[in-house]
Amino acid sequence: MAKRSADTKTSPKAKVTKTDPKERLEPLFQLVDKAQLGDTSKSMLVSMAPHCVGNPTHEFQVKFKEMLDGVVTKVDMEHVEGVERAQASLTEIQEQLEVAQKAVATETEEVTAARAVRTQKEEALNAARKEVASAHAAVATAKNKVESIETERSAMVAEKAEYESLLEGDWAVLKAGTIDGKKWRERAKLIAFSLKMLEPVGLDAALESALPVAFKTKPSERGSFAEKAIVYAEDLLHKTIAKLAEKLSGFEAEAAGRAQVLVDAVSAQQGACQQEEQRQAEFLAADAAVKEKEASLNHEKKAEKTLAPKLNKSKSALAMAEERLVQVRSLIAEFKQLNEAAAPLEG
User: Fold this and answer.
1) How far, in Å, CA of 206 to CA of 312, rounded?
2) pTM (whole model) above 0.90
């Protein structure tokens, strides 16, 4: 019985002795490898670990085990800090992206507003250009009227003289009926000329039909209707001469009025040109503002665009840091199980 009991007590030690400590301590070795230590320190920790992990009894083993615990704790802290740094970096980039997006939105609104202002200024400029063209036409018309005043006066003098000559000459002959009946062609010619002169001053269809008959009839044989037709037509000629005389007497005032119209037209032209220049300057300023805003918008868009790959890279870095922390804590969990063993893992 004693022999079997002794065999039973020694069998667990044989199992521990036969197990390779390095294989069981692989989680610890990986943790040591991840520690921010020099190669010499790592080598020493790896070589001493099998003698100290578990439940050491020697004072030096206890201190070394505490050292290992400190290294493991430091590795955990370093990986936690790595996750925190990655998270902080991601948050910073996200904040930068948010700022950039707001800047793009603001610049877009400003570009839209600037374009609307430019459109208004362009419409105002086009309207001013039309005013200038109208003013140029008004000046040209006024100049033509000023320059043609003497020609119109001369023509009016000639027209008045022609009506006076008609009354004193051909009309008087037709009215008196002194043309010999054999000269009917000459009489017909004078009648046609008289009717032509009456056309622009009030000759209607009835008068045009009555006058030839009245003039072909001898004065002593004319009826009351024929006499009235001649008197009415003659009255038209006298009124026409009177109107022409009145216009001729007012030609000085007409000339002065036309000259004043020209002065006013030139003044309006100058005002329109100044207005056009002002509208041109306003449009150019608005156009420059649009280009400036567009350039600023493009700059903000480029800044926003550069943040996209940074954001993706930062997300990947955070995911990798979190994955490493998970791996480290898994190794730490395995190490704690080893550390809770009853005896050191000496070979």
Assistant:
1) 102
2) no
